[in-house]
Design brief:
Distance between the termini: 60 Å
Structural class: mainly alpha
Largest sheet: none
Number of helices: 16
Radius of gyration: 22 Å
């Protein structure tokens, strides 16, 4: 143990790629996101959707911090691997209690306090690993100390909110995130840290997105439950699958490879590469991931409504909340994609039009039967894919 603690971190090289251990880490994060879908589906409403977004921001920011760390030093080696394993365990615990994040119990193990403590463990371990990774690098050590200040200050409102509960919990947890993220952004504004491997950084974000897309199908399918399958359910599942394939195509075919080339072509220590990594990947990928989560929530709600006992008719409209998360999730994904393109290879007016059309279709979908509303969205996304294929071919 003492030898491991005295060992020096293994720095990442330009040719480094994502490891299986990092993919394992990503899977635990995505498990938390699937639990988040279940949390919002239980009592769908504006407040619940905001609380779900707040927790999503927490988990994404924590994951992003570890993604940056894994681009500095190898994640599958020595103390870094041990620390990330402990962080994975804390994320797993947080995911288990997440559906009851705002519930009050008289017992010793209160879900809000357990969730807050687990998150503090995740962030605290990251600070410790940053300190270890800064060995022999005074500039990175100074940045770590500045970064630690805002992170630890945010723990006070986090714990206070968990104790108070209710509206105070929502407000204080919002303050905690703003202090943690905002302070971190300010302290790293001069330098985000060297992006040692552009290919590794791009690959990590692509991998987590493809895992979120895959898990979204599982979460959506969980809405079916163990019931007799009828043709409306199967048709809704096919529509949902087709729409998910379109979301995959819109990022991974053409867009992601070209953007990765832009990132890797910039000098490792240049401000240009740091800015691309911070804005195009850390920031722009948030609406991509959030869009998939809300989109999956919409499909989950449709499938659940079709299999309720007694089941809803396939000819009934979804209602505003379900329609909003379904179409809003797709629009959010397209917004994230547009930002990602603008920051890397450049966007086109057609992409902005696609976002506007999705939002204009929302009130139309509200009046349509649930099955037709999902089919309309799948058809529109397929049309966007076809248009971009033809445009690229020309």
């Amino acid at each position: 143990m003492s030898r491991a603690l005295r060992s020096r971190p293994v720095l990442v090289e330009e040719a480094h790629r994502a490891t299986t251990f990092e993919i394992f880490f990503d899977l635990v994060l995505v498990f938390a996101l699937t639990r988040l879908i279940g949390f919002m589906a239980e009592s769908l409403g504006p407040l619940t959707l905001y609380q779900g977004l707040l927790l999503l921001l927490w988990f994404w920011y924590a994951w992003s911090c570890y993604a940056w760390l894994g681009n500095q030093v190898r994640a599958d080696n020595g103390p870094v691997q041990a620390g990330m394993l402990a962080a994975m365990a804390a994320i797993f615990v947080a995911a288990l209690v997440l559906p009851e994040a705002w519930q009050r119990y008289d017992g010793a193990l209160r879900p809000p306090l357990t969730l807050a403590a687990a998150y503090i463990v995740v962030r605290g371990l990251h600070l410790g690993l940053m300190t270890y990774a800064s060995s022999g690098n005074p500039q990175y050590r100074r940045q770590t100390l500045r970064f630690a200040a805002s992170t630890t200050i945010a723990w006070a409102p986090l714990l206070a909110g968990a104790v108070l509960g209710g509206t105070a919990q929502t407000v204080l947890w919002t303050v905690a995130f703003l202090v943690d993220y905002g302070g971190g952004r300010i302290t790293t504004s001069a330098s985000f840290g060297e992006v040692r491997s552009g290919a590794h950084f791009a690959e990590r974000h692509g991998l987590v997105l493809i895992i979120v897309l895959g898990e979204s199908l599982l979460s959506a399918g969980a809405g079916v439950g163990a019931v007799m399958i009828a043709w409306p359910v199967l048709l809704a599942a096919v529509f949902g699958f087709a729409a998910t394939v379109c979301l995959w195509w819109l990022y991974f075919v053409g867009v992601a490879p070209e953007a990765a080339k832009v990132l890797t072509s910039a000098s490792p220590s240049s401000r240009r590469r740091q800015q691309l990594a911070s804005d195009a990947y850390t920031l722009a990928h948030l609406p991509l991931v959030a869009g998939v989560v809300y989109f999956a929530l919409g499909i989950h709600l449709i499938l659940a409504s079709l299999t309720d006992q007694p089941p809803h008719s396939a000819g009934e409209p979804m209602g505003w909340p379900a329609t909003t998360v379904l179409y809003g999730g797709a629009a959010l994904y397209l917004i994230g994609r547009l930002l990602f393109l603008r920051l890397t290879v450049g966007g086109s007016p057609g992409q902005l039009v696609a976002i506007g059309v999705v939002l204009l279709l929302l009130p139309v979908a509200r009046m349509l039967p649930a099955l037709a509303a999902l089919g309309l969205l799948a058809l529109f996304l397929a049309a966007v894919v076809l248009y971009e294929r033809l445009t690229r071919a020309e």
